[in-house]
Give the backbone structure.
Amino acid sequence: MMKFLKINKILILICCLTIMGRNVFSADGALKLYQKGKYEDAIRRYNRIIKNHPDWEEAHYGKGAALYKSNRVEEAVREFESAIPVKNPKQKSAVLYNMGNALYQSNRIDESLQFYKKALELNPKDMDAKYNYELAKAMLKQQNSQDKQQNGQNQQKKDQKDQQQNGQNKQEQQQKEQQKQNVQQQQTQMKNRKEKEKSQKEAAQILDALKENEKNLMQERMKTQYSGIKKEKDW
């Protein structure tokens, strides 16, 4: 069974204030707007109060509650932070509790645990704070387990990708080496062919030279033979 965060402690504590020098009637008007569900109007009213009394923790708390109801959770967190210094232990416990709720809704579950814990320290009998504390602790455990599982899956995918990449790189390297060997082999064959052709050409030139020498030698011999024959005398 799915458990949900208990948020029924969004209390507007201004209704019981009698602080000298502060516009309690204006605060009461903001509270009435909040109770009617007119949260944006309530926020504007609280803004006017805070402008005149920037250190009034209860006004920040009221604005934070209205922001929370308007799903402006991050802004609510800032207002609840400004309300934490409130001195009344019961009010402070409520502020810490709702600070925990706002952080939980912002998915800052580990931080929300600390505020639920502080709220329980001020009010150990607060069953809502205890419930939300246990819920947040269970959710954080589940989240950590999911993160660990996701990290494991991501690492496995990364390892597989790296393995494939390494295999591809190795294959490409082998192909490059093979291409290099083929080029070297072709160059060697071409060099050998050229040397062979050169040797054959040189051999042919030598043979031609020998033939030419032999021809010249024969011609010289024939000249010598013909030059040694005596001419006939004229009658």
